[in-house]
Amino acid sequence: MAESAINASLREGADWRGLNHGAAEPMPDDIAKGTYRGECHCGRVSFELRARLGYALDCNCSLCRRRGALWHAATDADLTILSGESDLLLYQFNTMAAKHYFCRHCGIHPFARPRLDPSRWVVNLRCIDGVDLAAIPVQAFDGANWETAARAFLEHSRRSLGA
Q1: Are strands 34-39 and 88-91 parallel, antiparallel or unpaired?
Q2: Can you say whether residue 28 is alpha, beta or left, with left for phi > 0 and alpha for psi between -120 and 50 degrees?
Q3: Does residue 27 register a pLDDT over 80?
Q4: What is the C-alpha separation between 36 and 47, in angstroms, rounded?
Q5: Entry pTM
Q6: What string of H, E and C letters represents the secondary structure of the chain?
Q7: How far is it, in rounded angstroms, from Cα 59 to Cα 122?
C-alpha cells in the first residue's frame, strides 16, 4: 500500500522543513536551538520543547483546520511532558495512525503523533507562551489531500537529503 511505503520511507530519515511541496525556504542556520515551556489552557498539562523554531506547519486536514494549531516537529528526545500526562486523552480517526492528545479538563491539544510519521511528535506552538508566531514562517501542509501531500513531502525530502 502506498501509505505504508510513504511512512516507512519517512522513518528512514526525512527533512521536516519545506513541507509545502518543496517551495519553502530552508530553515536558517542562525536560529539557535532553545528550550520552550508550554501548557494547555488550564495548566494541568505542561511540557518542554527543545527546538529551533524556524518554521510552523499549518495543516488543513479536517481536524487541524478546526483546531487552528500551528505545528512544529519534534523527536522524543526534544519533547518532555512535565506534568499532566494522566490528564491527557487520545483522539484518533480515519486510519488511526495519528494520535491526537488533548487535556481532558480544558480540551486544548498541545501535541500529537502525526500520521505523516507517528514515531515523531508535532507540538502546537500556540501552547507555548512568549513565542512570536508572527516572526515564524508558516508552511502549508495540504492534509485535506493527505496522500498527494505526503508523496510531495517524501519527494522533497529525498531531494533535500540528496537521495
Answers
A1: unpaired
A2: beta
A3: no
A4: 8
A5: 0.79
A6: CHHHHHHHHHHCCCCCCCCCCCCCCCCCCCCCCEEEEEECCCCCCEEEEEECCCCEEEECCCCHHHHCCCEEEECHHHEEEEECHHHEEEECCCCCCCEEEEECCCCCCCEEECCCCCCCEEEEHHHECCCCHHHCCEEEECHHHHHHHHHHHHHHHHHHCCC
A7: 11
Set of cell numbers at residue 8: 516507512
Give the Cα-Cα-Cα angle 134, 137, 140 (nearest 5 degrees): 115
What the block records as the C-alpha cell of 87 is: 490528564
> Domains along the chain?
28-145 (2.170.150.70)
CA-wise closest residue to 115 among 138, 90, 143: 143
pLDDT bucket at 30, cuts 50 / 70 / 90 = low
- The confidence score (pLDDT) of residue 130 equals 92
What pLDDT score does 28 carry? 52
